[in-house]
Amino acid sequence: QIMKQVPVRFDLKTLHVPTYSAEKLSSMKDTDWKDFLQRVCSLLDSTEKNTGAARSKLNLLYYLCTVAVHKEVASRLISSQLFPILIQQLRAAGNWDIRAKVARVIGLLALHTSELGENVPVSEAVILLTELIRENFRNTKLKQCLLPALGELLYLIASEEEKREHPRECWVVPSAAYTVLMRCLREGVRFFHC
User: Which residues are the signal sequence here (predicted)?
Assistant: First the structure.
């Protein structure tokens, strides 16, 4: 059973990056885009452990959810240095709220990107999501957050491989990813659509 996510809202006052619209981001010149991306990445990569820092990260992730639904922005973000930082946050964040929102951003990027570069570490994201689902298999709430991102990445990889004239194995998908996905589906796990 697929449940729709509630729309996300970010707090303009506490967001520490300019709140550009998706349209503005998609038409930005390279230097402005790099500046914006650098600010986003440094905020996400911050190692501060206090609750204010966690709230700031969550707020930034809510903002990223709102702009990741734009095809050009999603394509630019997934191919940027942001994607490896999202994977790192998914792996290392002590706060599961942050991990859940990171998974949602990854899922939205995978859903809305129109082109995937061969150097984008989607395999790493698939492996990590698979491991997190397996480690937390009895936690239905976590699976509901992680499964959509895994599904969207698998679909993106399959679509990209199909588009290529001479498909190469750019992105390795471990069989464990399909096993975990099928096990969840067999058990009738409800999950949220990105």
Answer: none
